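Field log, afternoon session.

UNIT: design team B
ACTIVITY: writing a sequence onto a fixed backbone
BACKBONE:
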């Protein structure tokens, strides 16, 4: 039951992050008026955002999401070494996504400098989906730990989920600015006063 709940919460948090990213891109588009269909059909936005994120390199992207989710899932149960259903606040915090966020540029430089294997360099270049999978899974697993066992403080869970989601959204923002892409699927209209 807990595994199914974990999957549902991961899907919910992931969809929430993708939806927030869509609205961030939409509101930064520079327009003042938006058609109704750009604002209310959330299921289409989530699918379109997912395809936009994965479209760079689908094989590496899906592998990155799977690796990030698996690492986040395994780290969330690391506290179980101390006892059954004992949750570690460290492994349910936004510290690990924060470390990846800070350390990824260094890894990228080192991968080029030290001639690491091509698949490692390719993975580090396209790490957005890994970071997405890791952050969403850690945020979702801390919500599950609070919901099932009340093993962590709600404020701790809430604050760390906000930080992890904020890091992912900022990561997407940085990537969008590097690509100079606003909303590729929506034509820009003149601002009307």
């Amino acid at each position: 039951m807990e595994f199914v709940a974990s999957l549902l919460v991961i899907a919910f948090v992931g969809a929430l992050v993708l939806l927030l990213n869509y609205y961030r891109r939409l509101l930064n588009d520079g327009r003042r008026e938006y058609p109704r269909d750009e604002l209310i059909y959330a299921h289409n936005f989530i699918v379109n955002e997912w395809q936009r994120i994965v479209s760079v390199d689908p094989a590496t992207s899906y592998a990155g999401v799977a690796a990030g989710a698996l690492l986040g899932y395994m780290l969330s149960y690391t506290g179980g070494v101390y006892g059954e259903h004992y949750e570690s606040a460290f492994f349910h915090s936004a510290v690990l996504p924060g470390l990846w966020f800070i350390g990824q540029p260094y890894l990228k430089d080192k991968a080029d400098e030290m001639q690491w294997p091509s698949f490692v360099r390719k993975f580090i270049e396209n790490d957005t989906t890994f970071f997405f999978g890791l952050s969403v899974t850690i945020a979702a697993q801390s919500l599950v730990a609070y919901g099932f066992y009340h093993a962590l403080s709600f404020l701790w869970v809430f604050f760390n989920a906000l930080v992890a989601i904020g890091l992912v959204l900022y990561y997407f923002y940085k990537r969008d600015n590097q690509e100079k892409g606003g909303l590729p699927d929506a034509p820009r209209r003149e601002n009307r006063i």
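LOG NOTE: Confidence is low (pLDDT under 50) at residues 186-193.
NEXT ACTIVITY: expression trials, pending approval
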